[in-house]
Amino acid sequence: MTMVEDDSDLIVTEDNKEGTILNVTSPKRKTMYTIYKPNDVYSMFKIKAENGLVPEHLSGYYTNRKTALSDLTYWLVHTPESKEAKWDRMFGEEKAPPPKLKEKKSGTTAV
What are the pLDDT digits (tens) for 38-55? Predict the structure, then answer.
């Protein structure tokens, strides 16, 4: 298992002109994480995932973008590589993972 020990592999891009939205991707995960400002009365930031759910300790409100980015970066650096990302790294994105085969039940038959 490969572990990224620093944040040099993370890709952070700003999405709008005010800079309130950041898109963060990591080679260890197949999903993109977004730091955004929700449309509510609070001037706080949240983290959302493109696919799936955000981990529980990252869900919640952040007072500024820098804190949300540092928490997300720390989590991405210290989390293990996902199975999908590992498969793509080993065999390339063009080759799909093998299908999961259902095991046949080996039962006895009455004669």
Answer: 887 778 999 999 888 898
